[in-house]
Amino acid sequence: MDDQQLKTLENLLERVATALEAQAGTGIARPPVSWYDAGAWLWNAAARELKPVKHTGALPLDLLVGIGPQIETLRENTRQFADGFSANNALLWGARGMGKSSLVKAVHASLESPHLKLIEIHREDIHSLPLLLDVLRGALQFRFILFCDDLSFDDQDDTYKSLKAVLEGGIEARPENVIFYATSNRRHLISRNMIENERGTSIHPTESVEEKVSLSDRFGLWLGFYPCSQDEYLEMLRGYAKTYGLKLDEADAIEWFRTRGSRSGRVAWQYVQHIAGMQRKKIA
Q1: What Cα–Cα distance (Å) separates residue 199 from each residue in 161, 190, 194, 206?
Q2: What global pTM score does this model have?
Q3: Domain endpoint, select from 203, 225, 247
Q4: Beta pairing, strands 40-44 & 49-53
Q5: What percent of the chain has pLDDT over 90?
Q6: Structural domain that includes position 99
Q7: How confident is the model over 143-180, as pLDDT tens digits?
């Protein structure tokens, strides 16, 4: 066997080993070469590595209208954590499009700390949290916000148990430099059907339901988000228009949300994108 054939065989064996490790849930995750390469990162569970995110699309906090108390609470909690003090895991739950994920990104950006890192983990990769935490334990000079957007669990889904152990109650403590923020449309992270099924099929239905609902109890902060009023919707648009130098037709903006059947921060932003294009302007 010549050198080229040997190298090809080695590469093949390495790929097979990597695939087997991933399938078995074993292996070692690779830390970044330098954490200073980015303020935000995306966890790639399949490759067991972190990808730098250069631009998160974070908005200035003053553009997030109608959620003043939530902004103040989450920012103070995050500041405490960034400064090395005690802080709570946070669950941002409630109405769609009302700025839950935008708030997490905006708070992180507003603190402007080179030692505070935002790491997004996809809901389907929750099972790989132990691998990621092993990486973060080795970087104690940094503080990490683990962020899972749109977190929820459905029937026959038991990965919530992995998250419960990580948040609180596992034999191995969560690293002191890690905090967990999640957004969800569901207050208890699980569907009503899931709760009803447990009540109807379990031998001890109350205990079974309590086990699932207790996941949300692991979050010390619960921040609720509710549908906005028309005045709040228009206030959002006025702020965007002023920031980006756009001409705002409020009657047209009202018609825009009526055609969509709802008012929210997301609908307001979509309208801003629309009028920015119409006015031949490009915004972030």
Answers
A1: 19, 14, 9, 7
A2: 0.81
A3: 225
A4: antiparallel
A5: 61
A6: 35-225
A7: 999 999 998 877 666 677 777 777 775 556 688 999 99
